[in-house]
């Protein structure tokens, strides 16, 4: 039986151009929100929803459009203002029937207290990233949201635009918004945002039907890439409105009168409105991409993401996620190197590595290396450690050879001969060649450093026991934090096994001669 809020939402959909198939069963799970199940067998290709673009909450459709565009805001920053504005209107908002079905906020780490971040996420991929997010978002709010209070209508309470309200809006946009089209940008899409995520198991797909052709064009959700780093891109303050249009004629030198400028502005506005009308005549569709039996939940997918990205942007994790990764910061590598050698030595070797064209992954001014769910380290890390451990004489000759070769080095394979030694860097060089005893020992030491970030209070075994004892939804934050931490620590353990297996495989159980240079 439908709950009161579901009945209100269904009435709102019918009145606002959202056509939801009777084959979809909206289920109010109360604490877990609303999910979507199949009333009957659904077949691949079935169109189960048609959604008018005018029903979507965007910068262009919101009553706050003039305020947003006057402040020159766009992207998630402008959409946050639109969402806070409509929420502040309560029942007077055209989206009241839709907004009442949404939670106040999604329980992303973004809205957790600093105490929760420190106690639950310490040592994980998210700890540093989310704390930096907090600072950036507070700056956005202070610089871009606070000044709007003077331009708000009299029926809007300025308190509706406080930092808590802004964080709540950001959490909903991060986890629920879709890219609609070039005109509207991203927005809140009623009904489409109710489908839960399942990694690599998409049942339904969100598409935008073009009004300029008969074919549908895919409108994918906003992605953020390595996940942990994507959501942070959205948090950067925007500086230019996305509604600006390029002129399609050649500019003629000379002054333009006020009357001509006004006429030009009116023509552009008319052209924009015409474009909007044409675009809004096209619809958004939810199309089945897989058969789903009656009674089963219908899932969307937010992309192929590891648990750090899922928790960061959507507030949940998935046990045994095959797309998990754990990162090792470049800073940990340089710390290990400077503790064994000198800072000058480390900087020189790092410079040679970069001269070869290598770099780690980057996010928020941080450089790092990925370790896959199987425990395999990123090849760039192995190459860096190999170079750090070259004997001084070999390093000097290699540096000279590289400087002499210059641009002649292949981008994919760098083969350099120094005396009797042949060095091959790149994909075809293979990680096995780089796994000398010295590199293996260095990797193990660096893994220990990475593991130490979780603290000494609990071991991996303790975390596994704690995870089994968790009760969701009561221990929701603890549960998802432990899933993430257990996953990361297991990958670090797999990296240790990866190193030991390679050593044993090459030496037949015997240790090879160390290749650690003299300092």
Question: In words, what does this structure look like?
Answer:
This protein has 519 residues and is an alpha+beta fold. It has two domains: 4-243 and 270-314, Alpha-Beta Complex (set domain protein methyltransferase, domain 1); 325-507, Alpha-Beta Complex (set domain protein methyltransferase, domain 2), CATH 3.90.1420. Helix content is 44%, strand content 13%. The protein is built from 18 helices and 14 strands. The strands form five sheets. It has a five-stranded antiparallel β-sheet. It has a three-stranded antiparallel β-sheet with strand order 10-12-11. β7 and β8 (216-218) form a beta hairpin. α3 crosses α7 (163-176). The longest helix has 32 residues, at 476-507. It is globular, with a radius of gyration of 27 Å. The model is unreliable at 211-256 and 509-519 (pLDDT under 50).
Explain briefly what this protein structure is.
The chain is an alpha+beta fold and 519 residues long. It has 18 helices and 14 strands.
